[in-house]
Every structure is written in structure tokens, then in C-alpha cells.
Amino acid sequence: MFDDGFIQRAIIAAPSILFALTVHEFFHAWTALRFGDPTAKNMGRLTLNPMAHLDLFGTLMMFMSGFRFGWAKPVPVNLMNVQNPRRADFWISAAGPLSNLGLGLIFGTIFRIVANIGIDLPEAVIMFLFFSVMINVSLAFFNLIPLFPLDGSHILRSVMSEKHSHLFDQLERIGPIILILLIVVGGFWIVLGPFVSATVYLFSGIRL
């Protein structure tokens, strides 16, 4: 991973990472406000300023994982402020990954257009488009994993029957431990790799 070209790739990928993480958290905050919860807005999180959202460790993990996964500071949500907590939690949680899939599709479409027209762009621009697709798709799938505190855990809880909520409570307690173990052993890419690769190819025509 840390070969001679890593620094160049990291410099080019950095804007993509900042933008992907910022948009992800912004749409969590925006969706929460739409459902009636102003908590994130009141805490200054309804913004596209990346400094309001970045988590140092989560950002470092994005670089150290080869731009395959990472995270930002969770957006605060108070479901006491909404009328239908389960429905609101589902869409607030899904908004982040969906926004990243949307960005991946947009950057992938731009990449396809550039490639089909045959525009001679600098290599750095081509790499930026490529990283923007891969980072956003990877971030979306990573956050859909149903382990606390990732978005997927909230989505799972919101669709799970109340009679099975005790099972989720048990999973939530050990979720962070499983998450750390998967990060340490690199298990995420083994599981998510095929899905990420297929989606990146679907959006951009790029084979990983």
C-alpha cells in the first residue's frame, strides 16, 4: 500500500475523501431536520464545512485502508423530536450512504463521458475522478454494515420487529468489538470487495 506512488495518490484522493465524508454527514443532518429534529443544525452540523464533520481517526483509516473505508464524527440525532422514530431513524441513517452512492454515480458518469468523448485530461484529474467513485462507493457499503455505531445498525434496528429487539441489543453491545477486529484483520474488504468492485464498474466502467 505504502509504495512510491502512495503520497501522490493520497494527495489526489484527499479532496475526494473530505468531500465524501462531508456530504455523508450533511445529509444525515439535513434529513434529520426534515423529520423535525433540529439537534444537528443547532450544533453546527448542517454545513458543508468539512471541519465540522471530520474525525481524525476515521479520516486516517481512509488513507491507511487504501481509500476503502473510513468515517466522520456521527451526527447527533434526538428521535424524541420526531413523530415516527422508526421511520425517521431509517431514513436519517440511510441518507448518508445514499448520498455517497449518488456522488459515486455522478463522478462515474463524468468519468464515462470524458472517456467516451476522448478528452485529454491531466492524469491527476483522471485519478481524482477514479478516487471519487471508489471512495464514495466504498464509504457507502462500509457504513451499511449492520454493526454499531455504523449506519447499517440503525437501519437494521428500524426494520427489526420489536419482539427481536433484545437480539439487537446484544449485537449492539459487541458490535464495536467486532468492528475493531474486522478493521484489524482487514475482513471488510474480503466481504465488501466484490460489491464495491461491481458497483464501481457499473457507475464508471472501471474494473478494480
Can you describe this structure?
The protein is mostly helical and about 210 residues long. It has one domain (about 5-205). About 70% of the residues lie in helices and about 0% in strands. It contains eight helices and no strands. It has helices spanning about 5-35, 40, 55-65, 85-115, 125-145, 150-160, 165-185, 185-205. α1 (about 5-35) crosses α5 (about 125-145) and α5 packs across α8. The longest helix is centred in the middle third of the chain and has 33 residues, at about 85-115. The model has no long low-confidence stretch (mean pLDDT about 90).
Mean pLDDT: 88
Largest sheet: none
Shape: globular
Strand elements, count: 0
Order of SSEs: HHHHHHHH
**Structural class, from helix and strand content?**
mainly alpha
Radius of gyration from the alpha-carbon trace, in angstroms? 18 Å
Q: How much of the sequence is in beta strands?
A: under 5%
Count of discrete domains: 1
- N- to C-terminal distance: 15 Å
User: Regions with pLDDT < 50 over 5+ consecutive residues?
Assistant: none
Helix content: 55-70%
Total number of helical segments? 8
The oligomeric state is: single chain
List the helices and strands and how they pair.
Elements: H1 6-34, H2 39-42, H3 56-64, H4 85-117, H5 123-143, H6 151-159, H7 165-185, H8 187-204
Summarize the structure.
With 208 residues, the chain is mainly α. It has helices at 6-34, 39-42, 56-64, 85-117, 123-143, 151-159, 165-185, 187-204.
